[in-house]
Amino acid sequence: MIREIRMTPSILNADFSNLESEIRVISEVSDFVHLDVMDNIFVPNFTFDFESAQKIIAASALPVDAHLMVADCDQMGPQYADIGCASVTIHAEASQDISGTLKTIRNAGVRAGLGIKPNTAVELYADIVELVDMFLIMTVEPGFGGQSFMDAMLPKIRRTREIIGDRPIWLQVDGGISIETIERATQAGADTFVAGSAVFKAEDPAVMVSTLRALAQNVAD
Ligand code: DX5
Ligand code: ZN
């Protein structure tokens, strides 16, 4: 199956004192920059408040793929859609109104993503597939970078690909993506890759993004 591969590096493990230039470093070789927003409620970690996220989004050399790991995603999803993100992903476990929030994000002209944690079954959301522009399958427990890819998620990635069928929905994986794991995630059906520590701990982050893309593209072609 020929699939278009997208690279969406996460700046969670980049230098937070200089995010603008960290994003610039990967901008030539990446499709989006993945912005992890954590509220210390949905996950046991905090990243940015709305105001600092807004500044990063406004200054970003790349379109922003926001990953909202926040409890009040039904309110924040639409807010992030309004401040210039290209894609906004909410977590199914946090939302009280998944369909409504996905529709509001889409109505703002922004791609609507639905993310699920490792213990959440994707089948629960098969009936709202038409409202989803991207599924995000977490391949670690959300909250921190630098964790190991969970091979136990491979069947879920496969199942998500089956649910997607021939719809133009992107299938993103997030957590532990590296040169060791990207090929098996692609083999299972992923086409959109978050990589945080693998990219920003590499000697040359841009070369790493290109290397990862080539490995995935080779499997997808
Ligand atoms: C974790 C975040 C990830 C994180 C991935 O909850 O959602 O985007 O940055 O980091 P790595 O690639 O290091 O696992
Ligand atoms: Zn993420």
CATH C-level name? Alpha Beta
How many strand segments? Answer: 8
Q: What fold name goes in the CATH topology slot? A: TIM Barrel
CATH superfamily: Aldolase class I
* Cα-to-Cα separation, first versus last residue: 7 Å
Q: What ligand molecules are bound, each kind once?
A: D-xylitol-5-phosphate, zinc ion
Going across the major beta sheet, what is the strand order?
1-8-7-6-5-4-3-2
The structural class is alpha/beta
Which runs of at least 5 residues are low in confidence (pLDDT < 50)?
none
CATH architecture designation: Alpha-Beta Barrel
Largest sheet: 8 strands, parallel
Succession of helices and strands: EHEHEHEHEEHEHEHH
What is the averaged pLDDT score?
97
- What's the number of structural domains? 1
Strand content: 15-25%
DSSP summary: helix tally: 8
Instruction: Categorize the overall geometry.
Output: globular
Q: Residue share in helices?
A: 25-40%
Radius of gyration: 16 Å
